[in-house]
């Protein structure tokens, strides 16, 4: 049966690839039509790209294994920024970025300087509000009296996301442009969002089946199968948005995506209630969740002119992620009792220590 799930996996990846490829142009037109800034354009890509995480968390809550969803969301927030910035860097090495008609300004110079130019407005529109969302999540989950996720937390996170979205879309808003939409473009836009969501969900689902049949632990399967495969739809979306010349939108979409994962995607777990079973793993992971956007903001704000990511910064972000993995594997994991516990009825329940497996 492994070959069946392998075929499903490949089909899901292709579906996500198709969705990302057909999403860049509609998003660009929509941003121009509504008069939103290029930094705010990342919110559109982020909302679509985060739909798989919402589906994964809803599924884990329904199945009674909410700790898997908790680990998956926090882990993806650590991985996403370095992965997407590396993708942006590689994608923007192309000549004539955005096509011959309206090539990206000063792109050839930026290629020679090994720079991915990103508007500094991304710090105030995306990075700082994202850090604020992370701080809100920490306040709701870390203090002993409030530890874990409860229904009231879902309402607070929903309000937090609404405030983030409003400031991202309205800041720097100008008069919209007149754009024409064909019927084909409308259908392709809707189909691409659906393809991204379905492709990513079935990518994760089929990978879990393959791991189970091979007898691999969820930690190994999550780190080396689920993580890179589940990230592919977002990688594809970032790649095509960057290649279309929307460099700042591509670089900020990762923040828009994970604002959703830190707010809307957690709501299913708040409905069923989610305790924190491994506090050390939880706060360590949450610290790295905050560290990544903090580095992102620092590199842009104090990186000099023109603003963006230099090659050494592009390399530094994945090294920080590797430090996180090493910390989990060599410090936290050896002191943990194991990845599975038994509930009162004798069924196996994955504890939060399986988070590194699901953190993808």
Automatic annotation (TrEMBL):
Keyword Nucleus found: no
Membrane-spanning intervals of the chain: 68-91, 122-142, 148-166, 187-207, 219-242, 254-276, 282-302, 314-332
Residue ranges of every copy of the Sodium/calcium exchanger membrane region domain listed in the record: 6-166, 188-329
Gene3D superfamilies, A to Z: NCX, central ion-binding region (1.20.1420.30)
GO cellular component terms, semicolon-separated: membrane
GO aspect biological process, one term: transmembrane transport
Cell compartments where the protein resides: Membrane
Keyword Oxidoreductase: no
InterPro entries to which the protein is assigned, alphabetical: NaCa_Exmemb, NCX_ion-bd_dom_sf
Keyword annotations of the record: Membrane, Transmembrane, Transmembrane helix
Short name of one Pfam family: Na_Ca_ex
Membrane topology type: Multi-pass membrane protein
Protein name in the entry: Sodium/calcium exchanger membrane region domain-containing protein
Organism: Ramlibacter aurantiacus
């Amino acid at each position: 049966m492994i070959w069946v799930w392998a075929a499903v996996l490949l089909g899901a990846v292709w579906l996500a690839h198709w969705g990302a490829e057909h999403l860049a142009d509609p998003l660009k037109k929509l941003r121009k039509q509504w008069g939103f800034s290029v930094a705010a354009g990342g919110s559109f890509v982020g909302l679509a790209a985060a739909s798989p995480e919402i589906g994964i968390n809803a599924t884990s809550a329904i199945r009674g294994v909410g700790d898997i969803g908790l680990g998956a969301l926090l882990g993806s927030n650590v991985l996403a920024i370095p992965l997407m910035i590396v993708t942006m860097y590689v994608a923007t090495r192309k000549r004539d970025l955005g096509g011959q008609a309206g090539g990206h300004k000063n792109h050839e110079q930026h290629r020679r300087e090994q720079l991915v130019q990103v508007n500094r407005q991304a710090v105030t529109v995306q990075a700082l509000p994202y850090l604020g969302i992370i701080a809100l999540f920490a306040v709701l989950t870390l203090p002993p009296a409030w530890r874990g996720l409860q229904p009231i937390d879902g309402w607070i996170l929903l309000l937090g996301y609404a405030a983030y979205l409003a400031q991202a879309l309205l800041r720097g808003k100008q008069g919209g442009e007149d754009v024409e939409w064909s019927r084909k473009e409308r259908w392709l836009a809707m189909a691409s969002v659906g393809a991204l969501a379905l492709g990513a969900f079935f990518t994760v689902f089929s990978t879990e089946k393959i791991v189970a049949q091979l007898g691999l632990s969820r930690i190994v399967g999550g780190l080396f199968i689920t993580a890179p495969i589940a990230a592919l739809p977002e990688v594809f979306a970032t790649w095509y948005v960057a290649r279309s010349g929307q460099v700042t939108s591509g670089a900020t979409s990762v923040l828009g995506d994970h604002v959703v994962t830190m707010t809307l995607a957690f709501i299913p777990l708040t409905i069923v209630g989610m305790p924190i079973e491994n506090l050390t793993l939880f706060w360590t992971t949450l610290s790295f969740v905050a560290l990544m956007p903090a580095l992102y903001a620092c590199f842009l704000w104090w990186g000099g002119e023109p603003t963006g990511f230099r090659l050494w910064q592009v390399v530094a972000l994945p090294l920080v992620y590797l430090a996180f993995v090493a910390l989990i594997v060599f410090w936290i994991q050896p002191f943990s009792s194991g990845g599975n516990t038994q509930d009162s009825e004798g069924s196996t329940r994955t504890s939060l220590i399986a988070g590194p497996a699901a953190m993808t």
